[in-house]
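Task: fold both queries, return tokens.
Query 1:
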Amino acid sequence: MLLAIEIGNSNLKLALFADTHLHAKWRLATKVHYTAVEQSIRLAESLLYRGLQPDQVTGCVISSVVPLVTPACIEFSRQYLNVEPVVVKPDLETGMGILYDDPAQLGVDRFADAVAAFHLYGAPLIAIDFGTATTFNVVNSAGDFAGGAIAPGLALVARSLERGVAQLPRIELTFPGRAIGTNTVAAMQSGLLYGYIGWVERLIWQLKDELAAEPKVIATGGLVSIIASHIKAIDIVNEDLTVEGLRLIWQIQQNHKKH
């Protein structure tokens, strides 16, 4: 089996693949202050909890946007799984050109989203990841990563509003049913959620206009289930897009080794 580890700002997202089949997936909170031993213990326990022994994992791929956690996950793969991991970087050969000014600055989660969307759905496309940040990742008609946009995620905006204004309460990220809120909570939900839809749709329109094409719009990320059904411009929802990208990148690297 292949173990994919996506190290995000809020969560470690783990997925097990049997060939191309997603066998299991789960999350652990990202703990930046944990030692390498502590990280390895909880990763190992999460596998054992699912009835998996280390020798059942024959491959490992890691992507990270939290550099402090990366070495511990690499060490876990080497010492516990006895597997040399593929650590995702934008300069890995995937068949996708990168038009970013400095490819080293491209977040590997954005890269994985683009690779997965391209291989699964073709180009041109816009892959939107509704996570801690909201990222818009554009692949042009030639199959190159053309760039995109980064904005605060919905939960981050909500927490900022609550912290910044003393009298506002913590709210659930659910739609209030109508835009005219008749109490503070409903008014906050309206402003956050309906407002968020508005700027997402406007940015999609702008990206399409600059791309001068009619791309597919694919959505993923931890908050996609809340927001995607309210945005008509979204064509496809794939909650597993990032880990599918990691699987594909790992497979491409294995194929290169054979040749």
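Query 1 returned. Query 2:
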Amino acid sequence: MSGLYLSRGLFPQEFLRPTVEFILNVQQPSGEIPWFSKGYTDPWDHIEAAMGLSIGGEYEAAGRAYRWLAEMQLEDGSWWASYRGKQIDNVERRESNFVAYAATGVWHHYLVTNDYDFLQTMWPMVERAVNFVLSLQTEYGDIHWAVDGQGKPKADALVTGCSSIYKSLECAHNIAVSLQRERPHWLLARDRLGRALRHRPERFDRTWESKARYSMDWFYPVLTGLLPEAEARARLAQRWDEFVEDKLGCRCVADEPWVTVAESCELVMSLLAAGDHARAVEVYSWLQQWRTSDGSYWTGYQMVEDLLWPDEKPTWTAGAILLAADALTEHTAASSLFCSVQILDAVADKPRERLLQAD
């Protein structure tokens, strides 16, 4: 199927119900959401799939997903890179953006459900996670991308990872304010991180080849609210032809003939954040050709070899499809999470738009 054009107020509930069911069918009784049946689970993608469940109205299942995450959290607030059930699948590292994303998922679920008890229950997990992440922030504002198996920081930073953390710190601040447990240093850390992302490019990709060929480095500063709208539009326009294949989707890597569904969904939300609603609708309409009969979506399409690759239909791709549909239709109260920046006022306890000025 192709050509699904979504409009505000018209969430395709019946059409996307099988996508929600797909995530539910992969979810384990414990709440864990692997990439696919018999696959491993990483914290970031587990949360992405859980957000899809919240959008689909599966609040109990989403709650179980976050309770599993809380149960698996280490004493220092982090998680290992991947798991299979309660067994650690990867003991080589713990990634800062994976850890920070817990705040984004918890805040998203609260926006959808308005479940204050859930927010209170998840607070200890969020606080420990944020404290771990901020322990990796350098004097320049950037945040080390991971620690190794012994807890030693891997001393370099990623544009995509730090951009994701920037959004997560916004969410963490809002959780703290909502619970009247203000943590003003979290917002200060976010501001320092923002300055590093905007003005200190030398702090990123110091020990490896530049990641600028990856589309996420291109659009994540837009998706996560780092740039004001005019700058966001200019950034997307600058490399559009490098990354976007007409009627197919967004490339994962500029120099590889491979479009991926999850990156395309994130680009949709980035376009909305940049005020380009028409193009966001158009890009999303291309993605239904990668849908399968059970409502899941292939990871991506290799254009030169004309094949779906890899032979995987991940739960996190299904989650991204639901997030983008929600953003386009404004179906839930969390629909604008990745399309705007909202910082709760610690004094008035009311939402206010925060002007993002490059200083």
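Both queries returned. Flag for query 2: The first strand starts at residue 82 and ends at 84.
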